[in-house]
Amino acid sequence: MIFGYARVSSVDQNLDRQVKELEKYGCDKIFQEKRSGKNFDRPVYREMRSKMRFHDVLVVHDLYRFGRNKEEIRNEWKRLIDEEIDIVVLNMPILNTRQYKELPGAGQLVSDLVLTLLSWLAEDDRKRILQAQKEGIALAKQKGVYKGTEKKYHPEAKGKNKVIYDEIVRSLNNKEPVMSIHKRVGVARNTIYKIKRELNL
């Protein structure tokens, strides 16, 4: 069976492009997840992995879908190979373990070499992005124009946002679970947790 896995790192990002590429490849089942790549705490990915068996195929758009830490990327790759699950990385054709079936050892050698390089690049890219963000914020602060992320839901909010904030506060005070509030109100769980911390609840 051919499994496809699509992931983006925030709820605001779109999965359509990845999903279309996975459909074009011919995946039998596509799992979609909106989760940060900082760690491998991904419930949808874990669910997919629990369904995979020997000689199944996992297709991803790029190496970043496995994480953004080179050790996690390499370790997950090794786990998949050890379980005899083939891997296809669409934007890097050389990372397609299916094409090396008739060349014992050669495919693994090529994959190992390329994977080591790419996993290092993935982590290095992430570090450079974070560093650029820090430098940009520092420069904005020096110019007095940095205000941070504007809060949408807070005690002084106006209109609809104030109504939503008051409902979240009321629900938290009534001990309603965050997940329940999230589903009912439509506000991200992280936002609800922040409000909860601010209220010391």
Automatic annotation (TrEMBL):
GO terms for biological process: DNA integration. The active site is at S9. One of its GO terms (molecular function) is DNA binding. CDD domains: SR_ResInv. It holds the Pfam family HTH_7. It comes from the Bacteria. Residues 1-144 form the Resolvase/invertase-type recombinase catalytic domain. Keywords: DNA integration, DNA recombination, DNA-binding, Plasmid. PROSITE patterns: RECOMBINASES_1, RECOMBINASES_3. SUPFAM superfamilies: Resolvase-like (SSF53041). PANTHER family: DNA-INVERTASE FROM LAMBDOID PROPHAGE (PTHR30461), RESOLVASE HOMOLOG YNEB (PTHR30461:SF26). Belongs to the site-specific recombinase resolvase family. This is Serine recombinase. It comes from Bacillus pumilus.
